[in-house]
Amino acid sequence: MPTPDATLSIAEQDSVFRPRKVHGTTVGVLTEELQAAGYEPLLTPVGRREHETRLSGAAMNPQAVGPGDLFVAVSGARAHGADYSRQAVDAGAAAVLTDAAGVDRVRHQVGYRVPVLQVQRVREAVGPAAAVIYGNTAASEPALFGVTGTNGKTTTTYFLRSLLEELHRPRGQHTGLIGTIEISAGQDAIPSQLTTPEAVQLHSLMALFRERGIAAAAMEVSSHAISYRRTAGLYYDVAGFTNLTQDHLDLHGTMEEYFAAKAELFTRRRTRTSVITVDDPWGHQMASVATGRVVTLATAGQAAEVDWQVVDVEPDGMGHRFTLHHARSGERLRTRTGLPGLFNVSNAALAAVMVLEAPDAPYGRQEVAEALQERDPFTISVPGRMQVLCEAPAAIVDFAHNPDAMIRTLDAAAATKGEGRIILVIGAAGERDRSKRPTMGAIAVRMADHVIISDDDPHGEDPAQIRAEVMAGAREAVESGGLTTQLEEIAPRAEAIERAVAAASPEDTVILAGRGHEVHQDFAGEHRPIDDRVELSEALLRHGHSPWEIMDSTVRQSSLQTDGVRNSPPQQSDDHG
Ligand SMILES: CC(=O)N[C@H]1[C@@H](OP(=O)(O)OP(=O)(O)OC[C@H]2O[C@@H](n3ccc(=O)[nH]c3=O)[C@H](O)[C@@H]2O)O[C@H](CO)[C@@H](O)[C@@H]1O[C@H](C)C(=O)N[C@@H](C)C(=O)N[C@H](CCC(=O)O)C(=O)O
Ligand SMILES: Nc1ncnc2c1ncn2[C@@H]1O[C@H](COP(=O)(O)OP(=O)(O)OP(=O)(O)O)[C@@H](O)[C@H]1O
């Protein structure tokens, strides 16, 4: 679960990715467009001045409002945005879009200083409204590749971006990325606040991508984003489905509802081509309910009646080499990924098939085949995703923070550990799907040899209570299974990491699960700096091991923006791998 990065304010983040020139519109035209789209807008007051009011941007957070913006005031769990209208109008908002409950609140705050557009389904209308303001249409967007699923979104979008770069760079074109770790447009990148930003920001980004000649973009689409209509008004050339397992039941209630949220993406209305991984029953169900052009992909085992199948998987370094086989044509493409874990074969295969099946692409199939076979696009560092920091002991930082991801990560470690032990540091986030805590504790003790339960992001909860819930599941599994797993509870997290490394021999594997690339822990709103990768590297050095250099840009970026966080990569010894 991403922790919003406190180092970059919403206003700062918003301003980085606004286009320089905006198409813009008037309140009158916007009203007509929303009417045509079925939102039944009510504009008050109805005068010529209101109709002609120009709009040159849109913002949902008052801190991000600039002159000429449409301020979108939604009703949420914490507040009604309309109660912040004065701040927005003082910052230059030219009009407000809100729901019926918001209109009186806006008037209470700012009287009749600005026109107010009232619609019924305001969250749903935000995307279409922002698209009108920024002049975005399906044809004007870059080729958009959206990835959804419980696990693998971030990794798959990094793989996609890497392959797309290989194909577009020779054409002098750039690519973009929108996801949990960063938003990037060509060379520029900033840390993300959300996995999938709000619609106002997404449309501003689409306009910016156009302005900067970004030809293709890979984007994570979270189930929250679909439920909260953040992606309304965007049209995907290709949408990819990774998998569905337990997570986010605090928002969705049941797996069926969680599935239904994701399924919205795989409809003709939203997406031209859907590529669906059918390794689990949810994948098969997704393929059967998807509308429009559907391409299926099986990455594990032999499946009947799929379009693409992963075959001939062989270990290759820390990763795997594999072949993509197209059932109808018999086409075979060999490629590899250097990232550990069979699930990364699935992620790489999905990225490859999404690009191979993209409609109206400027590159041919032969070019994609060459890039896959010769340019190794899936051997890249994805920050905090199976990120290997040392060989002996093997030391891995991974974002696994739900039961399925933990099982797969620990499976991957078991496959390469040889005679060594697996030492695991885990925690669970507060204010998120509580039911997974004991399950994760149980998985940990069943699959690792030494488990240290520590803190993740407690958010507003008591960290000791969260640890106790993880511990309860772990103890129960140890007792009922007669396990010999060594089990400890250590907080703060830095001490748990130190303990894990102190306990490790060179043949062991140390895994820090749950926090990946994140650089703060949120304790009731207090952001305490900690980066698992830095802590791990430093502990390895202290204990005489030879960690690799941390090679990704996020760490460097964060060190620029984080007050006091120890983010500089450690000094390397001469003999590191
Ligand atoms: C559960 C969820 O997604 N909530 C999001 C939702 O909150 P909400 O509808 O309850 O709105 P609210 O916070 O009450 O605010 C309502 C309005 O008042 C305004 N407001 C509110 C408070 C204030 O002080 N000032 C202010 O102006 C807000 O800008 C907003 O316009 O809309 C808010 C405004 O955009 C988001 O900030 C908020 O995301 C919160 C921060 C969040 O943590 N979201 C996470 C869970 C999330 O979306 N995660 C997924 C990834 C999940 C995963 O796969 O791991 C993501 O895509 O990032
Ligand atoms: N295809 C996959 N299937 C199962 N587990 C995976 C898969 N890919 C990655 N994982 C595991 O899930 C963790 C998160 O991976 P990644 O960040 O790519 O997924 P995500 O969907 O973006 O996650 P989140 O929504 O929590 O940000 C990884 O660190 C790894 O442990």
From TrEMBL:
Residues carrying N6-carboxylysine: 262
Subcellular location: Cytoplasm
Example of a GO cellular component annotation carried by this entry: cytoplasm
GO biological process: cell division; cell wall organization; peptidoglycan biosynthetic process; regulation of cell shape
Residues in Mur ligase central domain copies: 147-354
Keyword Cell division included in the entry's annotation: yes
Chief localisation class: cytoplasm
GO molecular function: acid-amino acid ligase activity; ATP binding; magnesium ion binding
Residues noted as binding UDP-N-acetyl-alpha-D-muramoyl-L-alanyl-D-glutamate in the record, renumbered to the chain: 195-196, 222, 230
NCBIfam families found in the cross-reference section: murE
HAMAP family recorded: MurE (MF_00208)
Designated name of the protein: UDP-N-acetylmuramyl-tripeptide synthetase
